[in-house]
Amino acid sequence: MSKLLDPKVLMAIKELSLSAKMTIDGFMSGINKSTVKGPGLEFSQYRSYQPGDDLRSLDWKMFARSDRYYIRESEVETNISIRLLIDASASMNHQDGNFSKIDYARYLAASLAYLGNLQGDAIGLYVFRSGGIFSMLAKQDFQHLARLFYQLEQIRPEGIFTRPIHYKELYGGVQKRELLIFITDLYEMNDEIFTLLDSLNTLRHEVVVFHLMSGNELELDFKGYTSFEDLETKETIQIDQDKARAAYRQKMDQYLEETRIKLLDRRIFYRLLRTDEPLDQALRDFLNQRNKLKI
Fold this sequence. Notes:
InterPro entries: DUF58 (IPR002881), vWFA_dom_sf (IPR036465)
Number of strands: 13
Strand content: 25-35%
Protein name: DUF58 domain-containing protein
Order of helices and strands: HHHEEHEEEEHEEHEHEHEEHEH
Mean pLDDT: 76
Oligomer: single chain
Number of helices: 10
Number of domains: 2
CATH architecture of the largest domain: 3-Layer(aba) Sandwich
CATH topology of the largest domain: Rossmann fold
CATH superfamily of the largest domain: von Willebrand factor, type A domain
Largest sheet: 6 strands, mixed
Pfam families: DUF58 (PF01882)
Radius of gyration: 23 Å
């Protein structure tokens, strides 16, 4: 078992009574492990024969007993494909105490992948890093899950966010509609992240954005520091935190509200997550919210 899933996280997942049933009427028109009437394996019900029905579905035993034609219907399970999108730009190295954004992203992604795998969903991965995109097709088996955990553990954030010229990779390969879970701090220089989100919308995927921010950057609470460096551009500025804090928080609140509205306008689910929030609560909040969404 990957070190990304410690016993506390596994217990939190186990205690979530939100597995297959919780997602039935939620995301992707409520289909996670729903049932569709068709020629499946598990019997569901009989219905009267209608002209045009496949004669192979006729139940001759029912005909012998009732002298009427009946179609035997079964339940066919359908599952969704989930792709985890991880921001691996240098700003994800930001720390609050001993915990960085990328640490939180790894644990959150691993937990969602584990939970999705238990539900029978196919899980895939995109890692957006400087210079390109790492991709894993979505599959549903524990060996694939182990490989996905390994790739999460190997992420080393650096440089800037992937440039739009590389987004063409998103259009290749399997064109199946997917649920995309984007874990990012939304730090961008030239709207490259919103260009990405607009690209994903054109593919008609369902998108969820987890916006990771640490407590110290939300509150401007960096004890003892007067000089700050941008992790991606390496630019530095001098700040008197006490004098700047009130204006900073006001601008931060404005930025977060504008971000939320921009994503709502794109019909993208948005959730701000503090990296000091318990991971199980983040999972619970997300699953509760996605259950309410409709296409």
